[in-house]
Each structure stands twice: as C-alpha cells, then as structure tokens.
Amino acid sequence: MYEVFTDLHVHIGRSEKNHPIKITAARSLNFANIAKECKERKGIGVVGIIDCMSPYIIEDIENFLRAGEAYEVEDGGIIYKDEVCILLGAEIETSEMRDDGKKGSAHNICFFPHLKDIKRFSNEMKKYINNITLSSQRTRLSAYDLVDIVEECNGILIPAHCFTPHKSFYGNCTDRLQKIFKEKYGKIYAIELGLSSDTFLADSISELEQKSFITNSDAHSLPKIAREYNKLLVGDISYKEVIKALKNEDGRKVVANYGLDPKLGKYHRTYCEKCEKNVSGKSPVTSCNTCDSSNITVGVLDRIEMIRDKEIKCDSYASSNRPPYVYQIPLSFIPGLGKKTIEKLLDVFETEMNILHKVSVDDLEGIVGKKIADNIIRARSGNMKIQEGGGRSVRKTYIENEKGKYMKELLDVLDENGFMTGEI
Which of these, 168, 177, 216, 348, has the minimum number of CB atoms within 10 Å of its CB? Predict the structure, then answer.
C-alpha cells in the first residue's frame, strides 16, 4: 500500500488533429500533453481526463496506445511511462426538475475502466446528445437515468462541483441529492466539492456523511492541473484501486484533500448582478443590501446555509472519519514565483508535488532565497491572507502578501487563448 496524488477532473481543449473539444480550454490541453505534464512537472500519479467520450479523443487514445506511449491494465486505466494512471472519463450535463417545477442542470463526471467501456458509453450517449464530439454536452436525461447507463458500461458516476451556482445539483437543482437519485442513491460513492467549498461546508449536510469527498482542479489549461487534488492510499495505480479508495474498501481510502480556501472560489459569496459586487452581510444572503435587487447569483456559502441540516464546524472535523482538508495554494499563485523561478525549482526538485510536500525550507532557501521560500511554506500550510471571491465570471480574486498589497491574480484569469479557466 502507498499514497498517490490524484486530480480527477481535467479537460481536453483540442484533439491531436486540432478538433475543438472543450471550447473554453487551451489548445495545448490534449491527451498526450496531460499525461506528460502529470509525470514530468506535476507529480500526479492518477489523473482523470473527463473528455474521453468524444470520438476524436477515442481516436487519439488508440493512436497513443499504438505508439507504445502507454498501455492498458486489466484492473482498468491507461498507464503512462509506468508512473501515471489515466482514468477515462466523461463530463455529462443532465436536466433535472427542481422542487419549484422549473428545470435545473447539473454536471456529472463518469469514469470507466477500459477504452472499450467508454467507446460503448459514447455510442450509447449519441442517442441523447446532439454533438458527441464536444465536452460537457447537455443530455435529455436526468442523472437518475444516467447512473444506470454508466453502470451498464462498467462505470461510476460522481456529481461534479456539487455546490456551484451553475451546472450543479445543490447549486441549482435540489436541496438533497437523494431526491434526484432516489433508490439509486447508494450507487453514488463520492461527490466533488468544487473550488468554492470544502469538507467543513459539505459536512453540514447529513446525507453526505457516508460519501467520500474529492477535490479536483477542473483544469482548462496545463498549468491549472493539480491546483486542487487528493491523496489516496492504494495498492497500485489503477481504476480498480481508485474506486476502492472512493468506496473506502479493503484499507484503501482518501487520505487528504488539498485545495484553495473556499473564500478564494469565485462563487463563494453571493454576487449582485445589478451592482456588480459581492453582497456583504450575514449568510444566507437572499437579496442585495445596496439596491435590494433579487437579481443575484447565490454564492456557495449562502446556498449551503440555506440547505444545511447540521452545524458548520470549521474548527474541527465534523465527522471523525473525514480526512483532513488542507488549504494549499499552487506554485503558480504564490507571490514572487514567476515562470522562470518555478522552472528553476523544477530543475532541482523535479515536480510540483515534491516542492509542495517534501522539500525543506532550507533546501528551498538555497534555490530561491528566504523571502520566496517563506512564501512557499506559508502557501502550502494555508497561512496566507486571502480576499473572498464571488459570483462574476471575469472578476478577480487575489492573494494578499504580508504588507497587505494584492500581489497575485488567482482565479477568473484568462488562459493562453483568452478563454476563462476555472469553474464554468
């Protein structure tokens, strides 16, 4: 048994033949580059690529395997250079009927053990999706129906970024997942928290007590891979072992979640669309305290306050069986760490996971000096000051340094192609 870092939500921007897959993702974000980035730069041992249902990507995967770059294993997954397990996934948008009779929509990430399984799933989903080549397409299905199709193709379904205002179950569809999945709720073993929530917030909903929590990057560009990630205890890197960890079976488990403080998530607090500002005040916020408008995007914190049935316990873990949620800031977001400095660190310490988890402060000081080394230590231990984010797709959230100046744009930034990155 050993521990492995995992990021189970990474998009593909383009196929090898330059076909668009995730429109808002970078062109450089293709299957081969993701595998290479995880091994050579990030130090991620298991990556979930969630656009593998597209026929263009299936073709890329087949060519990737034929070229000898990687190989499939019996327990599921594609192994790259003997060090990275790639889980083949799809992000599916389902249509849900809300309690008020209106329609909501939610994203689901679905993983499959083998290429033949996701090919079968892709062929089945053509019946319900207008453009099977593109990522995150809306289906004419509820998740209640989707979970059976996924299971028939030997896969598993995980509700994605569960609390965000758009495209999520708790955010705009329901106050309880059990209302959606009904008697099939037992087939849901884990939920994805999303960038604007954490273990403490999610654990205030009692129906989630037996579900594993995962936190992932939802990367729309290569640098964003592993901005949030997990540590799993597994017997080896394979689909079977990851699923066992999510089910907490045979000693396999989620050991820790690593993510940004949810205050940095762009949807953390409620946002007034008329005033174009965060709405302050005691949560839950239901209208703007400036213009009294109800034209608001309800933030994750405020939404959870509306639907929770337990206390939010931020000073201790709400449930003794929960792994720690570690507030951690990625290297590229740390003040003083530009591209050249990061490359210097990687030349010496090989991967970002090594820098964030293993390298001592003395070793860091020897490469980048005391000030930047101290920033790295504060960032990886969650001791940097932050400013709350909320609601708007092109708004800015910052890291604050010890002098109180805003030093680094964090989320809601444009990627290299001018597209939004983050929770879409």
Answer: 348
Q: 329: which strand partners?
A: none
Length of the chain: 424
The span from the CA of 92 to the CA of 54, in Å, is 12
In whole angstroms, what separates CA 189 from the centre of its chain? 16
Distance between CA 327 and CA 258 in Å, rounded? 6
- Cα separation, 30 vs 351, in Å, equals 20
Q: What is the DSSP letter of 24?
A: T
**79 CB-near residues (< 8 Å, 6+ apart):** 70, 71, 72, 73, 85, 86, 237
- Dihedral Cα 13, 16, 20, 26, nearest 10 deg: 30
CB atoms within 10 A of CB 62: 12
Per-residue pLDDT, 69 = 87
DSSP state of 280: P
Interior/surface letters 176-198, b for 16+ CB within 10 angstroms, e for the rest = bbebbbeebbeebbbbbbbbbbb
User: Would strands 2-10 and 229-234 be described as parallel, antiparallel, or unpaired?
Assistant: antiparallel
The pLDDT tens digits for 301-359 are 999 999 999 988 775 554 557 999 998 888 888 888 888 999 999 999 999 999 999 99
pLDDT at 414: 34
Give, in order, the Cα–Cα distances in Å from 332 to each of 284, 340, 386. 33, 11, 16
Q: Who contacts 229 (Cβ-Cβ below 8 Å, separation ≥6)? A: 5, 6, 7, 44, 215, 216, 217, 258, 259
Pairing of β 84-97 and β 78-80: antiparallel
Amino acid at 393: S
151: number of Cβ within 10 Å? 14
CA-CA distance, 272 to 287, in Å (whole number)? 8
Question: Which residues have C-beta within 8 Å of that of residue 37, sequence separation ≥ 6?
Answer: 222, 225
Burial of 311 (0-12, 13-18, 19+ CB in 10 A): exposed
User: Residue 53 and residue 91: Cα distance in Å, rounded?
Assistant: 9
Contacts of residue 375, Cβ cutoff 8 Å, sequence gap at least 6: 334, 335, 336, 337, 384, 401
Predicted TM-score (pTM) of this structure: 0.89
DSSP single-letter state for residue 238: S
Sign of the torsion formed by the C-alpha atoms of 302, 308, 313 and 319: negative
